[in-house]
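Customer escalation, tier 2.

The customer says the design service returned an amino acid string that "doesn't look like it belongs to this structure." They asked us to rerun it and document both sides in this ticket. The original structure tokens are below, unchanged.
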């Protein structure tokens, strides 16, 4: 073997036996965890590098390249944290918090998470910001919440960026705050946080400092809806239903409102029932309309109960119609009050009862049903002044706390 062959062989042996942090890191990043684990352990025999200690702590914690060992994970991570590695400080805080490899100790947990946050570790700063914002395990302090959210946001943490946007958005005292909210929401959205797209949509729909921007509203609400945010799905369906920011398109409205994510959304079910009943964006389908109204009624919708009453009435089942109208009227739904007034007045599916007829007629008049204010005297038939006065007092008392909410339902 010649000189150059011997030299090449010696270089190869030296390279094989010399381990660097970069070797360990590259193996780990490439998913070769077993080799990375072996190299890290060898490396620690002759080198002091807290980055490798952190890597070992993580591998013992997750079982990558070795068996899960909480005690070893804690020991290596604690060694790295004590050397000032922010990631390790945060991990040790979480270990104390959950009792992984050590006893649970909330005080130690908070101390280490705070250390990591003060060393600008994004996850720690965001978590500490949340703690101060909500008063969770620590005294509420909105200024400190903002401080730590800002640290995390500047490091590119999308949750913190979104949280900062919300802080500025809710403080609407100035145009500057509004634009700061937009800025941080945009950053979070660019980092893939679709909740931020939803927040951007809400910002662009407001009559605030730059004015409404419906194009931006639709763009962002669509992104949020495609990501499965239920409120965004509902809003987009309503936008197509109403022609708000987009051309009215009942077929698209139906498509969005039929999304399974809205299966228990009473407003979506009410709209779907109406669309199937009237044939908006689809063929008229009374069976499907009835099905949607039943679902909405079971969720408490007085409008849906009224519609079910109308379905039963038109099919000749007046006893069932009366039941649904009564349930709707019990929640002060105006049209249900009107229907009951007529049914009691005419003896239509129920015995004539002038007191009940006037009770519901007066309800309907107070709730603004067209025609009832002008024709209210018709329903006073056979009633004394005392009867009329008592009924009106009863209705006024019942309506006083809830009339506004009832009309908008």
């Amino acid at each position: 073997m010649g000189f150059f062959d011997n030299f090449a062989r010696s270089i190869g042996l030296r390279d094989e036996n010399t381990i660097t942090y970069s070797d360990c890191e590259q193996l780990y990043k490439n998913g070769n965890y077993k080799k990375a684990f072996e190299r890290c352990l060898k490396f620690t025999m002759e080198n002091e590098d807290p980055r490798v200690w952190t890597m070992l702590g993580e591998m013992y914690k997750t079982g990558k390249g070795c068996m899960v060992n909480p005690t070893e994970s804690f020991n290596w991570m604690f060694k790295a944290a004590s050397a000032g590695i922010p990631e390790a400080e945060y991990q040790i805080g979480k270990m104390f918090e959950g009792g992984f490899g050590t006893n649970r100790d909330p005080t130690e947990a908070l101390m280490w998470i705070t250390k990591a946050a003060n060393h600008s570790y994004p996850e720690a700063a965001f978590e500490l910001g949340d703690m101060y914002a909500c008063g969770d395990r620590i005294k509420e302090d909105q200024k400190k919440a903002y401080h730590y959210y800002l640290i995390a946001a500047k490091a590119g943490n999308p949750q913190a960026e979104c949280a900062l946007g919300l802080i500025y958005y809710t403080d609407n005292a100035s145009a500057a705050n509004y634009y700061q909210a937009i800025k941080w929401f945009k950053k979070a959205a660019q980092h893939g946080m679709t909740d931020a797209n939803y927040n951007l949509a809400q910002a662009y729909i407001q009559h605030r400092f730059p004015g409404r921007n419906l194009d931006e509203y639709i763009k962002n609400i669509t992104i949020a809806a495609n990501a499965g945010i239920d409120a965004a799905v509902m809003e987009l369906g309503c936008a197509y239903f109403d022609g708000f920011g987009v051309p009215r398109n009942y077929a698209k409205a139906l498509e969005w409102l039929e999304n399974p994510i809205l299966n228990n959304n009473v407003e979506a079910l009410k709209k779907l029932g109406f669309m199937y009943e009237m044939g908006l964006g689809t063929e008229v389908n009374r069976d499907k309309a009835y099905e949607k109204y039943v679902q909405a009624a079971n969720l408490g919708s007085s409008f849906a109960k009224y519609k079910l009453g109308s379905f039963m009435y038109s099919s000749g089942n007046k006893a069932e119609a009366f039941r649904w109208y009564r349930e709707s009227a019990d929640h002060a739904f105006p049209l249900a009050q009107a229907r009951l007034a007529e049914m009691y007045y005419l003896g239509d599916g129920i015995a004539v009862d002038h007191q009940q007829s006037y009770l519901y007629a007066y309800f309907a008049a107070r709730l603004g049903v067209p025609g009832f204010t002008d024709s209210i005297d018709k329903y006073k038939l056979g009633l004394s002044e005392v009867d009329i006065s008592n009924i009106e007092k009863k209705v006024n008392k019942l309506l006083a706390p809830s009339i506004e909410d009832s009309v908008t339902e």
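Tier 2 assessment: The sequence is consistent with the input. Residues 175-190 form the longest helix (16 residues). Residues 237 and 255 are 8 Å apart (CA to CA). Sent an explanation to the customer and offered a walkthrough call.
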